[in-house]
Predict the 3D structure of the following.
Amino acid sequence: MAKDPKPEQDAALRAALGHLLNLTGFLTLSIAALLAYVVLFTQPKPWMSAWWARITATETENPTPDGPPTETPNPAIWTAPSVDGESDAAKRKQLRYGKDLIAHTSKYFGPAGTIEKNRTNGLNCQNCHLDAGTTYFGNNYAAVAATYPKFRARSGGIENVYKRVNDCIERSLNGRALDTASEEMQAMVAYIQYVGRGVPKGKAPEGSGIKKLPLLNRPADPNRGKIVYEAQCQSCHQADGRGLIAQGAAEFTYPPLWGALSYNDGAGLYRLSNFAGYVKYNMPQGARHDAPILTDEEAWDVAAYVNSQPRPKKDIRADWPDISSKPFDHPFGPFADGFSAKQHKFGPFGPIKAKLAALNAQK
Ligand code: HEC
Ligand code: HEC
């Protein structure tokens, strides 16, 4: 007579269940302990703050009454939203126009511009704001929507995005400001705002603008920079620095770094720290923030060389109305810190920075 297997099975099942419960309890405890350890004893990691920012960000940020709620990009790893994702057709058209104006500015306003010839020097915004201002540490527009209008010491007043764009038109593009109400200005600003939408107000996501380089403790050297230029830059930007434009083309293949068609001496890139930071992480073409090609020294020296070449001048007497707010590498006096114009141009910048910090601490 076969024995009924049931009770044995039951017992085995109970035993297995008991083991499982023990295991679950153990796992729960371990996870709780691990979490407590992480929360109490470790520095918050970027992903944690990003995650926290994401779950605490509410719909009050950038409400979009006429569309789906804006996603909140993780500020630590910002990537630009695509304009193709805009659902409103008219708005999408405007954004695409704005993007095209930024990518191919010269086509519209340069020496052969279709809207107006010679309103700008032939550079595209994108030559300095890579991929229409979306590249990580490629002088992108990530922070603009979230940080403007803001006080800017250069003008001594509150600047909105229109004013900031016109600053680049008058300096980097050595051109004439656009009317704020013009279709072109409206489109560019709409695009810039769209790119930075969802970035929490007042925040500059990591990777925005230009990455700062450590300062050298010697002056940047144009003679050494010339050697860097010849080895690493001139194949594209040419020996005379004037870039390369194909016959009849509306925009440069390789934009000019100096000469009549380059940025003027009131432009952001004329400051050595901006130039060196931009170039270190983006040039020669193909360099990236996580795969630079030049050393820090080479970047500073080539900045000194390029910014010692002839270029258009801008009347900047009205800039920096409070002279103690001039950046350490603004090379035009008068200076509040007593250092020479030459040291303000080439460095060493450490002592100037320290003096400025001390002066401003007394305010
Ligand atoms: C020759 C290079 C160059 C060109 C061309 C250029 N810019 Fe700029 N732009 C800069 C630099 C440098 C800065 C300042 C970066 C800094 O200070 O961190 C800047 C800053 C800006 C900012 C503010 C960014 C911020 O986060 O505060 C905006 C907006 C801007 N540019 C728009 C434009 C537009 C639009 C165009 C074309 C009409 C243009 N720029 C053309 C070099 C350029
Ligand atoms: C392989 C070609 C190439 C080389 C080499 C190269 N560049 Fe460029 N550079 C470019 C191109 C193309 C752009 C415009 C980028 C764009 O529009 O996407 C540019 C843009 C620039 C700009 C901003 C626009 C302007 O005209 O001011 C600067 C500054 C610059 N390069 C500096 C340098 C320096 C310094 C070196 C050498 C260390 C260098 N480049 C090497 C191709 C090159």
Notes: The longest strand covers residues 150-152. The mean pLDDT is 88. The CA atoms of residues 221 and 301 lie 5 Å apart.
